[in-house]
Amino acid sequence: MTQHLPTPVAATDKPGRRRLLYGAVAAAAGATGLGLAWWQNQRLSPSLAPEQAALWKLVFQTPDQAPLDMQKFAGKPLLLNFWATWCPPCIEELPLLDRFFAENAANGWQVLGLAVDQAEPVRTFLKRLPLRFPVALAGFAGIELSKSLGNLSGGLPFTVVLGRSGAVLHRKIGIVRAEDLQLWRQLR
Predict the structure, then answer these.
(1) Under CATH, which architecture does the 50-185 domain have?
(2) pLDDT (tens digit, 9 = 90+) per residue, 142-160?
(3) Which residues are CB-contacts of 83 (< 8 A; sequence separation ≥ 6)?
(4) Which of 76, 94, 136, 146 is the most exposed place for a label (fewest CB within 10 A)?
(5) Predicted TM-score of the model (pTM)
(6) Are 50 and 126 in contact (CB under 8 A)?
């Protein structure tokens, strides 16, 4: 019985085929690298959803009736907190948010409190508990705005962390804790 041994590939392979194979492997590796770079870039600089883009065009009034343009906050990380004077967990977390603002403003962090409330109760409240970060009035329309940013239930308090690009990086319904702020401080 005669046994046929396989012929080594190199013996029958022509130099042109080998170069073609190496070229195809190199092209596939390059395409994979480009795809990975594109994917990573998409994650790092996400495009804004329409409702997120609309946020930056809004102008609110402060409790003192001065205009507060959201464009003022563009380009830096922003912790946006929806709260109300009639919401006990909202009131409980405000001193913590105020401390976060004081400790991190020098590092570019901004905090904005959007009161889902009327001007007079907010003014009265801020006289008792002054805050170092700006507060604006969103009124009851603030609930709809918070829903457009991911607060599906419309509950308070609701906090959104927006990155430098203006995109939502994190959301939290319910009271903010020190651990949340520590985590968010790392986001940009």
Answers:
(1) 3-Layer(aba) Sandwich (3.40)
(2) 999 999 999 999 999 999 9
(3) 90, 91, 93, 94, 113, 114, 115, 116, 156, 157
(4) 76
(5) 0.74
(6) no
